[in-house]
């Protein structure tokens, strides 16, 4: 089905739909158009949005550029003490 056919079919559904169906489609459309609020991953139970992930990456890059990081050797030494 082409995009044009899909649009036509959806228009037909909407033209004949009852209030319940229209409310469901409306809710779906609103969630879809939230843009950067789109959930793209989960960390445990917490949802992560595109916007949040971008901010985390930006902060991590700034930390690396300022020298605020741990080398692999430092990490291995520290992690041995976790036991």
Q: If strands are numbered along the chain, what order do they take across the biggest sheet?
A: 1-2
Distance between the termini: 58 Å
Number of strands: 2
Q: Which H/E pattern describes the elements?
A: HHEEHH
Portion of residues in beta strands equals: 5-15%
Explain what you see.
The chain has 83 residues and is mainly alpha-helical. The protein folds into two domains: 1-33; 37-67. It has helices at residues 3-16, 19-32, 50-65, 72-80, and strands at residues 39-43, 46-49. A two-stranded antiparallel ribbon has the order 1-2. A hairpin with a 2-residue loop joins strand 1 and strand 2 (46-49). It is elongated, with a radius of gyration of 23 Å. The chain starts with a helix and ends with a helix. The model has no long low-confidence stretch (mean pLDDT 89).
Question: Mind sketching the topology for me?
Answer:
Blueprint: H1 3-16, H2 19-32, E1 39-43, E2 46-49, H3 50-65, H4 72-80
Antiparallel strand pairs: 1-2
Briefly characterize the structure.
The chain has 83 residues and is mostly helical. The protein is 64% helix and 11% strand.
Summarize this structure as a short list of keywords or feature phrases.
single chain; 83 residues; 4 helices; 2 domains; mainly alpha
């Amino acid at each position: 089905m082409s995009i044009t056919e899909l649009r036509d079919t959806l228009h037909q559904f909407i033209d004949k739909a009852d209030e319940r169906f229209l409310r469901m489609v409306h809710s779906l459309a609103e969630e879809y158009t939230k843009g950067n609020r789109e959930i793209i991953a989960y960390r445990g139970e917490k949802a992560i949005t595109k916007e949040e992930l971008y901010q985390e990456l930006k902060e991590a890059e700034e930390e690396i550029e300022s020298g605020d990081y741990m080398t692999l050797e430092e990490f291995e030494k520290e992690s041995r003490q976790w036991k």
